[in-house]
Write a structure and sequence with these properties.
about 375 residues, 6-stranded antiparallel sheet, 5-stranded antiparallel sheet
Length: about 375
């Protein structure tokens, strides 16, 4: 399994809902045929004629919701036949009523043709959009160097794979580096900033020997991007992690965001990482970022979560207690851990309205399990 984010993306069409572009549910496809069969069965069983022929007029429009023009035409023709044959006791609808049903059937076929063409275009556009978004934030591999990793992402804007949060894990000549952050704004308006920051991070991983230098590169990227906008207030919060070559040490820089939680021996350790100023307000002019070095043991896991997790509140306004819940949800596999936290979060706050991001990193020092 590459990343929980990949599995969530595959479930995303269901999250869109039927009226937002997802495929129609099974009952919508069965309903026209079931209604036709029900009317016919009721007329055959009843000892006296039933005045329910008007229900047949709804079948062609219902077919438009889930069927193509051919099936809609077939159902419309069957309605006309049922209204015309004597065995169903519906053969006296009147010429005006029969013509009305024929007109509605023809109109339904036309509408079904238009709908299927539109749906095909939407499928193509969605495929292109998803490919573009995956190019910006590709799924994480299971392992980068000596570090196992898994990321979970749920964008606040339904139907999108990229929003205001971002993360990445890359190997370079100076070791494995990871980043997780949150840019100003949400949804598609923040995608350009996310793409710019991730591009700068991937270049800095190859060039910069220290995590504070990587942070300075990201800060400069935001400053350059906002220079052409007279009233731009472009900023981002981020946490950078720099693993040693043997994965026995991690150096952490927090820019306007809390540091990671350390899962060790079934407990959660809140690391003493003091955040510096956010990216985009010129780190070179403010106080230099503080680098915190944390020794790592075999079995340690680092858990990073965006404010979409820590600031999620239930109906009573109670924040999600991540630190309290995390030990009970902890498992060895990083991807399973992220998925279990997501499930627990949704149980606490079903209506999550912010971008939710989690990054789980499990370094495996030599000699570790």
């Amino acid at each position: 399994m590459n990343s929980v984010r990949g599995r969530l993306a595959r479930r995303d069409p269901d999250r869109r809902g039927w009226l937002r572009g997802a495929p129609p549910p099974g009952w919508a496809r069965v309903l026209p045929s079931a209604l036709l069969a029900g009317v016919c069965a009721a007329e055959l069983i009843s000892p006296k004629p039933l005045d329910i022929g008007f229900l047949l007029g709804a079948i062609p429009p219902l077919a438009v919701l889930a069927h193509g023009p051919v099936m809609t035409a077939v159902l419309g023709a069957l309605v006309v036949v049922v209204l015309s044959v004597p065995v169903f006791n519906l053969d006296d609808p009147g010429s005006t009523d029969l013509l009305t049903v024929c007109f509605v059937s023809v109109l339904s076929v036309l509408l079904s043709y238009v709908r299927t063409r539109r749906d095909a275009q939407l499928v193509t556009e969605r495929a292109v959009a998803e490919a573009a978004q995956r190019a910006v934030v590709p799924p994480l591999p299971e392992r980068v160097g000596p570090v196992r990793c898994a990321g979970l992402y749920r964008a606040a804007q339904s139907g999108t794979l990229v929003g205001g949060d971002f993360f990445d894990v890359r190997a370079g000549p100076y070791g494995v580096r990871a980043v997780m952050g949150d840019v100003q704004g949400h949804g598609l308006s923040a995608v350009a900033t996310v793409a710019s920051l991730l591009g700068a991070f991937r270049e800095a991983v190859l060039d910069q020997p220290d995590p504070e230098a990587v942070a300075a590169r990201l800060d400069r990227r935001l400053a350059v991007d906002s220079a052409g906008e007279p009233h731009a207030e472009l900023f981002a919060t981020a946490v950078l992690l720099d693993f040693s070559a043997d994965a026995r040490l991690v150096r952490i820089v927090a820019c306007g965001q809390a540091g990671p939680l350390l899962l060790r021996d079934g407990r959660v350790v809140e690391l003493d990482v003091e955040p510096c100023a956010p990216l985009g307000i010129s780190l070179t002019e403010a106080a230099p970022p503080r680098v915190v070095s944390v020794p790592l043991r075999a079995g340690d896991r680092l858990f990073l979560a965006s404010d979409g997790v820590t600031e999620a509140r239930d109906a009573d306004g109670v924040f999600y207690p991540l630190v309290d819940r995390l030990p009970g949800l902890a498992v060895e596999d990083p991807a399973t851990l992220a998925e279990r936290v997501w499930t627990d979060l949704v149980g606490h706050c079903p209506d999550v309205r912010d971008d939710v991001t989690m990054l789980v990193l499990a370094p495996r020092p030599p000699g570790g399990p």
